[in-house]
Specification:
Blueprint lengths: L9 H18 L1 H6 L2 E4 L4 E6 L5 E3 L4 E2 L1 H23 L5 H7 L4 E9 L7 E11 L3 E10 L4 E10 L2
Helix pairs in contact: 1-4
């Protein structure tokens, strides 16, 4: 690191975290439809959403729609990569890191539906398995309010 480059200050990191939460919860409109709320950014990135009638995919059993599961895990994978990109570029301002989000997109997503999507609420978690210069890979999990594993996913995203 050269003298001109300084690490992100605690104030700038707090600004970045606030921008990130605002992006996830408010500016990505579909996340609002899903009801995603950020539970934590670190040490593990977690989001939560409550079961609601609008999310039911099987009217008779009241199960969560598979598309809701897929969309949540896809959104989560992209978000955890954003956090990793911010850590990879610790000298960048919040604005510079958020600008990198514009270049991201899902290129592959595989979801394994393991159990019926039943519960009062759901918690999704994700981890980065690889962050390269052009492609990032993630693994995600969705559990219900009782901690039962509902689905897992793996995805790849273009990051540059």
């Amino acid at each position: 690191m050269t003298n001109a480059q300084t690490l992100r200050s605690a104030e700038e990191q707090a600004r970045l975290d606030a921008e990130f939460v605002d992006l996830v919860e408010h500016r990505i409109t579909f996340n609002q439809v899903l009801g995603l709320k950020v539970v934590s950014l670190r040490p593990q990135y977690l989001v939560r959403f409550d079961m609601r009638p609008e999310l039911v995919g099987h009217a008779h059993y009241g199960r969560l729609h598979g598309g809701v599961i897929s969309a949540t895990l896809d959104a989560l994978g992209g978000c955890v990569l954003m956090l990793a990109i911010a850590e990879k570029h610790p000298t960048e301002s919040a604005e510079q890191v958020m600008h990198r989000f514009l270049k991201m997109g899902t290129i592959d997503l595989r979801v394994d539906f393991l159990r019926q999507g039943v519960g009062k609420h759901f918690i999704a978690s994700a981890e980065v398995t690889r962050l390269g210069g052009r492609v990032g890979s993630t693994q995600m999990r969705l559990v219900n309010d009782e901690g039962t594993l509902i689905a897992t996913a793996a995805a790849a995203y273009i990051v540059s």
